[in-house]
Amino acid sequence: MASTSDIRNGLCIDLNNDIYSVVEFLHVKPGKGNAFVRTKLKSLTSGKVIEQTFPAGHKIDDVRVERRKFQYLYNDESGFNFMDNETYDQVSLPTEMIERPEFLKEGSEIEILFHAVKNIPLTAEMPANIVLEVTYTEPGVRGDTATNVTKPATVETGAEVKVPIFINEGDKIKIDTRSGAYLERVKA
User: Fold this and answer.
1) What is the rounded CA–CA span in Å between residue 81 and residue 94?
2) Residue spans in the chain of domains classed CATH 2.40.50.140
C-alpha cells in the first residue's frame, strides 16, 4: 500500500480491477479546502488514458513491475514473438500490447513490463527511436525546396514515414517511435 505522496511518473497502481501507469500528476493545495492529487493514468491492458483525482493521504494499491529486455524474433498468427536476452525464454504478445509494432525490426530490443507477482506481461515499450533503411521512395524534384517539403517513404519493416525530399532509397533514417516521425538521416 502506498499513499498519494508516493505518486510519481511511471508508478503502476491497481485501480478498479485494472493496472494503470501514472503518466502525469500534480499535487494541488488550494487556499480553501483539502489538498489533492490530480493524475493522468494510462491503462496497461487497454491503453486508455483516464484522469483521476485522489484526496491527499488517500491509500492506493501499487503494483510491483519488472522491466526486462527482450529481442524481437518474428511475427506469426499467435502474435509477436520475443526472446529474453538472459534466460532465452520466449514470449508471444498480441499486437494490442505493443505500441507502434510497424517499426519492429528483427533483432531489435524492446522492454516488456511484467507483473512481478503474477509474472504476466503487461505491456511492451519500444525504444525512443529506431534506425531503419529506406527501401522505396520517389526521387526528389530538384528545386522543390520551398518550406519543409516531405514525401512518403517505405522503410525495411514496411511502415510508411514522411521524409524530406533529399532522402533516397538505401539511406538509413532515425525515426521517433512514439510519433512515427522522421528525425534525421544517419551516416553509415
Assistant:
1) 9
2) 65-125, 130-186
Cell (9 digits) for 64: 510491483
At 47 the pLDDT is: 78
Residue with cell string 498480441: 94
Cα–Cα distance for residue pair 60/41, rounded to 1 Å = 13
Nearest to 182 by CA among 25, 160, 122: 160
What would the grid cell of residue 7 be? 505518486
Amino acid at the residue 50: I
**Chain segment 130-179, per-residue pLDDT in tens:** 999 999 998 876 666 666 788 899 999 899 999 988 888 999 999 998 88
CATH 2.30.30.30 domain locations along the chain: 2-62
CATH superfamily label, 65-125: Nucleic acid-binding proteins (2.40.50.140)
Task: Assign domain 2-62 to a CATH class.
Answer: mainly beta
CA–CA distance, 101 with 78 (Å, rounded to integer): 14
Domain 130-186, CATH: 2.40.50.140
Neighbours of 170 (CB within 10 A): 10
For 97, the 3-state DSSP assignment is helix
